[in-house]
Specification:
The complex is a heterodimer of chains A (282) and B (308). Chain A is 38% helix and 22% strand. By secondary structure, chain A is an alpha/beta fold. In chain A, helix 4 crosses helix 5 and helix 7 crosses helix 10. Chain B has one domain: MetI-like fold, CATH 1.10.3720.10. Helix content of chain B is 74%, strand content 0%. The relative contact order of chain B is 0.10. The chains are: A alpha/beta (282), B mainly alpha (308). Chains A and B meet through strand 5 and helix 3 of A and helix 9 and helix 10 of B. Chain B: Belongs to the binding-protein-dependent transport system permease family. Chain B: Its main location: membrane.
Chain lengths: 282, 308
């Protein structure tokens, strides 16, 4: 089974105008287990997006390394020490990690189905197979009737559906979602939260999801990590099952008003507010 | 605003009267004066417009009336002899001269030949600029070495008036067709290259990242993302470029031309044939405007997503 491992990763940005270097991420050790839905939550500047960029391969760590593959790590030891090869190391972006952005990532000169099959076309997949796979995932996100629509005429929610279908069509090992619902109105947002959970259940893919909304984080996550700035690091981790509860009862409002949900929400809010006040004093 | 509100008030009060009469509100058709005023109205007002950005609303009718008034003023002032024909011939003389030059010719060439030569010069320079400026501009956008190489050259000569380097072009390339085309080409090249470069810079980083995450190579990103994204700006650059081309035409045809609209105008000015001067200017204006319309149509066809 595929897992994503982050081993002793730090990211240090050189200081602006000769200032102090900035530690965006400090000594991150973290594993996303097969089929896990991990949500990252934290105040601005805590390194959530940096962490996602590392996983996507858009940036390289200053120290440490990331792997994505089927090998298991030996507890407490770096892989090299265990005599394992590093073939699974992430060195750049690739089609095994699909990325969904907040916005601006669709290609306006292509219609819905052309956007969805764009990755397959780059890889030289035949037209018939491209269409078949694109059609499958467009159906999964509820866009089966919009194949020929220009993407710039779609609403924000529908554009994000295309973004999700496009990332899935390449059959990645995991999806990286950088605040994918952040620019949507509250109603569309809830509809797409449910859609993403359905997609997760259907495809069994690993998910790494960034959000600013505590409620969204609790609702979506199998595991919630809370990050803290200066230096960016993971401070809290919670195992959650509200997403499973939703997939059973299919009533999002009911899940979000459970006493344990509300209790958890207050707890997480207290942690984050603590961080922000600490940050404000700097 | 006041005008519309008054009109609305009139219409409203009339419909109230008719409601009293017929016990059934009927909107009366607008009176001729109101209909005339409505032509100049700003159009339906959206909520927030009154205190929104200044200058909203339709302006077409005002432009039409301005143009017609100017033409009328031109016709009246010249026909009544307020201005001597040497300074401003009447529009009817200009039209008559247009017909004469079109059929019999002026300075050893018909209007069609003059126009043909000028269009040949401008459009061959334009084609040459498209073939070179767009690739170089894109290359400047995606490659820092190319940017370092071409930036000082383009930025140095771009603000210079073509007339300033015309003598140099003639010394280097002679007085034949080549120097004329090159002068126009240089005027078109800079805005086109800079637009292509700006187009490359306007690509959203998310689009590039998304393509890499779908397994694109560097070349595929350039080909499928950057060049497509830059297309709206490239088309804008082509529009600006061809404008510069027409502006430079007269300068290019100053030396040793046998035919051409610019040459025709200059030649007519030497002999004080003012109606040919005006006619030539109008013809250049019309051709340039028609080509701009064509470019705008192309823009709507090729980049319908622009600004969305």
């Amino acid at each position: 089974m595929n897992r994503l491992q982050i081993n002793d990763v730090s990211v240090i940005y050189p200081g602006m105008n000769g200032g102090e270097p900035v530690r965006a991420l400090s000594d991150i050790n973290f594993t996303i287990e097969p089929g896990e839905f991990v949500v990252a939550l934290g105040a601005s500047g805590c390194g959530k997006t940096t962490l996602l960029s590392l996983m996507a391969g858009f940036i390289q760590p200053s120290a440490g390394y990331l792997t994505l593959g089927e090998h298991d790590n030996v507890e407490g030891l770096p892989r090299v020490a265990c005599g394992m090869d590093l073939n699974d190391q992430i060195t750049g972006p690739g089609q095994d990690r699909g990325v969904v952005f907040q916005k601006h990532a669709l290609l306006p000169w292509l219609n819905v189905v052309e956007n969805t099959e764009f990755g397959l076309k780059l890889q030289g997949v035949s037209k018939a197979e491209r269409h078949e796979r694109a059609a499958h995932f467009l159906k999964l996100v509820g866009l089966e009737d919009f194949h020929q629509h220009p993407v710039y005429q779609l609403s924000g929610g529908m554009q994000q559906r295309v973004g999700i279908a496009r990332a899935l069509t390449n059959d990645p090992k995991m999806l990286l979602l950088d605040e994918p619902l952040g620019a949507l109105d509250a109603l569309t947002r809830e509809v797409l939260q449910e859609l993403l959970l359905d997609v997760w259940k259907e495809t069994q893919k690993m998910m790494f999801f960034i959000t600013h909304s505590v409620e969204e984080a609790l609702f979506m996550a199998s595991r919630l990590i809370i990050m803290s700035p200066r230096p960016g690091r993971i401070t809290h981790e919670f195992k959650l099952d509200f997403n499973e509860k939703f997939l059973e009862c299919r009533d999002a409002r009911k899940v979000k008003s459970l006493p344990e949900f509300i209790e958890m929400r207050e707890k997480v809010l207290a942690i984050i507010h603590g961080d922000e006040q600490e940050g404000g004093m700097h | 605003m006041n005008v519309i509100n008054q009109d609305a008030a009139i219409v409203a009060s009339e419909s109230v009267e008719s409601a009293v009469e017929q016990a059934k509100p009927v909107m009366k058709p607008l009176k001729p004066l109101q209909r005339f005023k409505a032509l100049f109205a700003a159009g339906p007002v959206k909520p927030g417009d009154a205190f929104g950005a200044p200058g909203q609303g339709k302006s077409t009718m005002i432009s039409v009336v301005t143009s017609i008034s100017l033409l009328l003023l031109w016709a009246v002032s010249t026909e009544l002899g307020w201005i001597k024909p040497l300074f401003l011939p009447s529009p009817f003389d200009v039209v008559a001269r247009f017909w004469e030059v079109a059929t019999e010719g002026f300075a050893n060439a018909t209007l069609l030949e003059h126009t043909g030569w000028s269009m040949f010069r401008v459009f061959s320079a334009f084609a040459l600029a498209m073939l070179t400026a767009i690739p170089i501009g894109i290359f400047m956008g995606v490659n820092r070495i190319a940017r370092g190489l071409f930036d000082p050259i383009i930025e140095f000569y771009r603000p210079l008036p073509p007339l300033a380097y015309l003598p140099l072009v003639i010394i280097w390339l002679g007085i034949g067709e080549v120097s004329k085309v090159v002068l126009i080409y240089l005027a078109i090249f800079a805005p086109m290259a800079l637009s292509a470069r700006a187009g490359v810079k306007s690509v959203a980083i998310e689009q590039i990242h998304a393509a890499y995450s779908m397994g694109a190579s560097r070349w595929q990103v350039t080909r499928h993302i950057i060049m497509k994204s830059a297309l709206p700006e490239i088309l804008t650059g082509m529009r600006i470029g061809i404008g510069f081309g027409w502006t430079t035409l007269v300068a290019a045809e100053m030396v040793a031309a046998q035919a051409g609209l610019g040459f025709m105008v200059l030649n007519a000015a030497e002999f004080l044939v003012t109606d040919v001067v005006i006619m030539g200017i109008v013809v250049i204006g019309i051709i340039a405007y028609l080509f701009d319309l064509l470019m705008r149509w192309l823009e709507r066809k090729l980049v319908p997503w622009k600004g969305k």
